Amino acid sequence: MHAKARDNGEELTPFIGAAELETHVQYRLGRQVRNFQLIFADKGLVLRGRAKTYYAKQLAQHAVLEATKLPIWANEIEVV
Question: What is the pLDDT of residue 11?
Fold first, then answer.
């Protein structure tokens, strides 16, 4: 999901906070990433959770990138 524009041309993220973004990513990934969490750090995000594969870890990162313009500082999703 991409940022939406207001009438004045200002871009917005479609999510209010971490909970909505976490829900969006979980929906996109199904059960491939468990205990998914987003931690809002200074102007960036840290991803945490447990993935079944490295591919699922990468998919989670791309889902977050599509949904927000905040940089990802670290992808700490553990592959188990």
Answer: 41
Q: Which position has the token pair 């990433």?
A: 33
Cα–Cα distance measured from residue 75 to residue 78, given in angstroms and rounded to the nearest whole number:
9
Range 22-25, long-range pairs (CB < 8 A, 24+ positions) = 24/63, 24/67, 25/60, 25/63, 25/64, 25/67
Query: pLDDT (tens digit, 9 = 90+) per residue, 17-73?
Result: 778 888 888 888 888 999 998 888 887 899 999 999 999 999 999 999 888 878 999
CA distances from 4 to 21, 37, 75 (A): 15, 24, 25
